[in-house]
Amino acid sequence: MLYPVVDVSGWEPARPETIGREEKLWLREPGAPVHSRERDWLFKPVIVPANGNRQGEDWAEKIVCELGELLGVPCAEVQMAVRNGRAGSVSRNVAPDGWNLVLGSLLLGASSPDYLDGELRPPGRPGHSPEAILRALDGIDAPPGTALPDAGTTFAGYLLLDAWVGNQDRHDQNWAVLRETADPGRIRMAPSYDHASSLGFNLRDTRRQALITNGVAAYAAAARAHRFEHSPGASRSEIPTLVDVCRGILRGRPAAAYWWERLESVGTDRIAAVVAAAPGMSAPAATFATELLLINRRRLLDVG
Q1: Shortest CA distance to 137 belongs to which of 158, 118, 160?
Q2: Are 138 and 152 in contact, with CB atoms under 8 Å apart?
Q3: Residue 216 in contact with residue 292, Cβ under 8 Å?
Q4: What are the strands of the beta sheet with 86-92, ordered from one edge?
Q5: Structural domains in the chain (count)
Q6: Less CB within 10 Å around the terminal CB: N or C of the chain?
Q7: For position 111, which CATH number holds?
Q8: In which domain of life is the source organism classified (predicted)?
Q9: Same domain, 107 and 47
Q10: Which distant-in-sequence residues (6+ apart) come within 8 Å of 100 by Cβ?
Q11: Which runs of E-coded beta strand occur in 173-272?
């Protein structure tokens, strides 16, 4: 059974989205209370660049959301969507009423003297390391509605999900915490969001087919954690892989066994079914995404 595609043409605009460089728009779900933002959804249209290649941000967002649920990683709820004939996806607001979203850039800026805002494009992304993030998250609770013990365990799960799906875009505005607006002003980890840059979403089918024939493993191994701190003069090959970063963070931590067991519990058939349920994917896109997930799963479990 395919995932539904929700027609949001009639949904009222709630507000523009100012974070990020791509076109996005917050929409209010029909029937939602006027003063509530819990049922606001962020519409992100599929990008068709000048070369005419229709990218797969919509199915990538949906597939990663479903895989996150299988892993037990708290993620924003995602639906594939269409608005006025334009394909895309909608992601539900991760901030409940009474809570504000505080971006990782703000949290690190207040807690780490070595951090430089990623908006400035600083060479080497100083201060935006998994270790610095975990220090900033120390003592913070997990997202609402999850049984995970704390924010650090949750963020380790985000790194595992990124390594599995090949998401190289975990920059300092692509993770956040939630701050309660009323006293006592509690802070919790926010669910993970913005996973469109995954699963080879922007490849041409001709490229995917060539990789399927001979090269998915090499493509998987080339996924680098370039959004995290690294030597400013490092070549791409010298930047740690997503798998290496995940391994380094989980090594020796109490959360390691939990996350490896969660990944191992998601079998081949289930992975294939999650991908196959995405409407609009070409056969090469579906085959490539499935192969990438299977290869990365093996790579991660080999180091688990």
Answers
A1: 158
A2: yes
A3: yes
A4: 5-7, 78-83, 86-92, 40-45, 25-28, 12-16
A5: 2
A6: N
A7: 1.10.1070.20
A8: Bacteria
A9: no
A10: 178, 179, 181
A11: 176-180, 187-189
